[in-house]
Amino acid sequence: MVKVNFYDVGRGLKKWTASCPTEITLDWLHSQVKLFGGLSASSIGFLTVHGKGTIYDGDRPVGNYEIVTETITNKGGGGNG
To answer: Which residue ranges make up each domain of the chain?
Structure first.
C-alpha cells in the first residue's frame, strides 16, 4: 500500500492524504485530484522526482504531492509451517 500526501492543490490550496492499495498509476492520481482537489481539466499532468511531485494544468503548477510510505503486505498467509 502506498500513502500519498497532497497539498496546496487548486485555488483553495486543499490538503489531504490518500492510500493506494496497489502501485500508483496516472489514473489513480487523476481520480484523487478530481475527487478531492476539484481539478477536472483534461490537461492535468504529474511530474514525480524522488517521491515528491507537482501537479500541472497544462504548463501551470496547480498543486503538489509526496509519496510518504510504501508498505508491502503479506496476503499469502504463508509461513514456516
So the answer is: 2-70
